[in-house]
Amino acid sequence: MIAKEPVPGRVKTRLTPPFTPAQAAALAEASLVDTLAAVAATPVSRRVLALDGTPGRWLPGGFDVIGQRGAGLDERIAWALVDAQETLAVPLVLIGMDTPQVTPGLLAAAAEPLVSDTADATFGMAEDGGFWLLGLR
Structure pTM? Predict the structure, then answer.
């Protein structure tokens, strides 16, 4: 999982206005908590949080935290995948911190083709043309 610490003025800045920085950070934290809960409930060998910031009370147990590196989102995603696999070479599924539709079942289904060697990659397409999940063997 890749995320930013939910700090006012640093997260969800495209929502300000109409929200205040504190309201945007509260929304980010709620999204982060929900996504972390789904990941925590998914049967996997390891849970990694590539975090821009410092872990807070919102982080449940059972996660390895690594720092983010890179300039843009593309670089931060690439380095998160590299850094997570460096310490445990297993297939990886990456999602962001604000993925309200994610469930443990969706995450397990995305990982299954990677684990069973029937696919080299999985991709969760978003309705806006982007993606919400990237999985690589």
Answer: 0.93
